[in-house]
Design goal:
There is one protein chain. A hairpin with a 3-residue loop joins strand 8 and strand 9. The two termini are about 20 Å apart. Helix 2 packs antiparallel against helix 10, helix 4 crosses helix 7 and helix 4 crosses helix 8. Strands 4-3-9-8-7 form a five-stranded antiparallel sheet. A two-stranded antiparallel ribbon has the order 1-2. The radius of gyration is 19 Å and the shape is globular. The chain has twelve helices and nine strands. The protein is about 40% helix and about 10% strand. With about 325 residues, it is α+β, with helices and mostly antiparallel strands.
Length: about 325
């Protein structure tokens, strides 16, 4: 890979890739945490899998580890479903059904806002179910096909739903079903409850790899345009909505500490993925199935914290006119 420019500063691909290899080597031996077991299919995953990928807004790709290993996207899908719902309904209508406030509670808490009766935000399960229920379509098949086509635009290739994971989530998702019925009681969901839940379970069971996640993150960093295919994945006018909610709510009840230490919009999933967005510069993805008590990848959090520290990724340190890549000089061993 030849040298290229990021903004007005030069990137040395071999040096940056060496830095990522150092990070992978440093954290590969970490054995803290446990794989998710409340969804039976997720409990079967190999806990040693680990990969790091970065894609820049001009299409450069850096990848280390098990970056082609497929896994289900899980809660990371909420970000992209939210974007599709915004395109379908507009931000004003979405705000009547789903708020944008962080909760400080677990992602699967069965709670609604006491006054409005809305779920608190689109990144917790209740809010994601309400968001998914707002996606337009003449029936279940059309809504699913629109969802899958949306993922295709972000990633650059077709995706599929893992039927075994979907079935596993559907048969054990009683807590999510309770949330849906509670929201139906307050008028936050106005279509067939089981149909809305099925689409939610299907979106969570979409198969991706670490490279796919990094491309999706880079698409958000690139104002909604896929940097590999140059296809518009989401209306650029909604990027600020998506990234704002990711920044304040994407890491659940770890969101405040994440904003303080890492300082960039991110979203995690119980399959072990974390993706993060450095606006106008790059998308980052890490996959490692060992989770902490909050449901975030242990290695993923450590990698992102170190990337932020060494490259000055924090939003209050980094800007579009001051490339984070300038900080890679001297960071690699």
């Amino acid at each position: 890979m030849a040298q290229a420019n990021q903004g007005d500063l030069e990137i040395v691909p071999s040096q940056f890739l060496g830095f990522l290899k150092d990070l992978h080597s440093k954290y590969k031996s970490v054995q803290e945490g446990a794989v998710a077991n409340y969804i039976p299919e997720l409990a079967k995953v190999n806990p040693d899998l680990f990969s790091i990928c970065v894609v820049t807004v001009d299409g450069q790709l850096y990848e280390v580890g098990d970056y082609e290993q497929l896994f289900t996207i899980q809660s990371m899908s909420k970000v992209f479903a939210y974007g599709l719902a915004l395109e379908d309904r507009g931000r004003d209508y979405i705000l009547t059904r789903v708020g944008v406030e962080p909760t400080g509670d677990a992602f699967n808490a069965i709670i609604l806002d006491e006054q409005s009766k809305r779920p608190h935000n689109p990144m917790v399960n209740a809010g994601a179910i309400a968001t998914t229920s707002l996606i337009k379509g003449s029936g279940a098949t059309e809504r699913l096909n629109r969802m899958l086509d949306m993922f295709r635009r972000y990633i650059g290739h077709d995706v599929f739903v893992d039927i075994s994971v979907f079935t596993s989530e559907r048969s054990t998702g009683h807590r999510n079903r309770a949330m849906a019925h509670l929201m139906f009681n307050f008028g936050m969901i106005d279509q067939n409850i089981e149909e809305a839940l099925d689409l939610y379970f299907q979106q969570c069971a979409v198969m991706v790899n670490c490279r796919d996640l990094a491309v999706m993150a880079a698409t958000l960093a690139n104002r909604g345009t896929n940097p590999i295919t140059d296809e518009q994945a989401v209306d650029r006018h909604y990027i600020k909505d998506i990234l704002s909610v990711m920044y304040t709510c994407g890491m659940y009840n770890f969101a405040g500490e994440w904003a303080y230490k890492v300082g960039i919009p991110a979203k995690s999933g119980v399959s072990g993925g974390i993706f993060a967005v450095v606006p106008h510069q790059m998308g980052i993805a890490v996959f490692s199935p060992l989770l902490d008590a909050r449901g975030n990848s242990v290695r993923g959090v450590k990698v992102c914290e170190e990337l932020s520290q060494h490259l000055a990724l924090h939003l209050f340190e980094c800007s579009a006119n001051n490339s984070c890549f300038s900080n890679i000089q001297g960071s690699s061993k």
